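Hi team,

Filling in the usual template for the complex we talked about on Friday. All components are listed, including any nucleic acid strands or ligand strings, so the model treats them as one assembly.

SUBMITTER: L.P.
PURPOSE: interface mapping
COMPONENTS: two
RESIDUES: 421
SEQUENCES:
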Amino acid sequence: MNEPRRLLDGECSALERALLDAGVSYRSSPEVHTKTLAALGLAGSAALTAGAAGAALTGQPVLGSSVAAKLGWTKLLATFAMVGAVAGLPAGYFVWEASQERPEPPAAPVAPPAERPTPGLHATPAAEETASVSPAPPSGVEAEPSKPPARTARAPERSPAEQPAANAAALSAELLALDAARKALAAGNATQALTLLEGYDRAHPDGRLGIEAEVLRIDALAKSGQEGAARRRAERFLRRYPNSVLASRVRRFLDE
Amino acid sequence: MVNSYIDFIARVLRNAGTPPAEIDDAVQRTFITVARRLDDVRPGAEKAFLLQIALHVAAHARRTAARRREVPASEAVEMVESATPEQLTNQKRARQMLDRVLDQMDTDLRTVFVLYEFEELNMAEIASVLGIPRGTVASRLRRARADFRERVAAFDRVATAEVGR
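RESULT (copied from the run log):
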């Protein structure tokens, strides 16, 4: 049976060609690349109950180990960074390049704003610190959601050319911070993980990986003996992000 | 795997009907699901496995969107290859028009069309991924192409008529 020529390789009208080109030229954003790696890092950790993400989607039992477990989260990170480095600059280059081609301002977010973590989701640093140093504090340790977190000093205005590179650097820093917390948790040191997550919050009050950080925090709280605080955060997470990629894992945690 | 296939997966998800605003989540779901089932993947068959999962994710996203009676988010931010504002605007319009054409197509025809025309899979590969005979792939591709061309021609006629007013 002969394979017919692709429409784009043959004769087609100008409009057909334009539409076909549009279908072929679609690319993912650098941000989804990073977020996917972050999500896989969480999947590779012992965080919460393994397997819910896949099982919730496919309805099938989880049989395999994770990409991160096989390749190593750090290797994935390194691979990601190396790809950017070989191209000339780290991942930020692609952000910069994309932003140069688009009419939106360079700092315009790529991800839907609705997925951004809101200030209320995070505990205040002071409250979190209390939580992380006390092995089994009373349930009231968790910060009130209505209390806004302390903000870091406003950074000086950057030029449009500097902004994308700064965004990429911040995203890489977020990824590394979360990886450090994940490793601490995987090593059985939940208290250290909470401290690192606290540092993440302070360094990235509007972090783009806030949802991923929150899932790690829920797990760390539970593993540090603060089951009540973990459950409350989990319930709040599901109210705010019922359709998040990580929601099914949080649900599984609550169902246990 | 992420580095090698993320654009491929994002494109398949997009062209298979995942609402634009949900592409990021859908990409993550696809890779997480594959990660959880990595032991099921035959060596060398990673791309096909990813593709199967992505099509499943896209179908799930379409059903969910239909249940919510959502209007497709045509204004979602997307990455396009373009150099000038004019080209970018044209590409954006073309993308929106393509969405409308694909959304009107039968899902089975659309899937074969997308995999053959955009992803350049051959018929045997498509048959393997979809679990259907190769003859069925050929038949669906023929019908999909005719359908696509008819719908695009209809758009063209409408545009010409509007310009002529």
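MY TAKE: Residues 27-142+158-255 of chain A form one domain. Chain A has one domain: 27-142+158-255.

Thanks, L.
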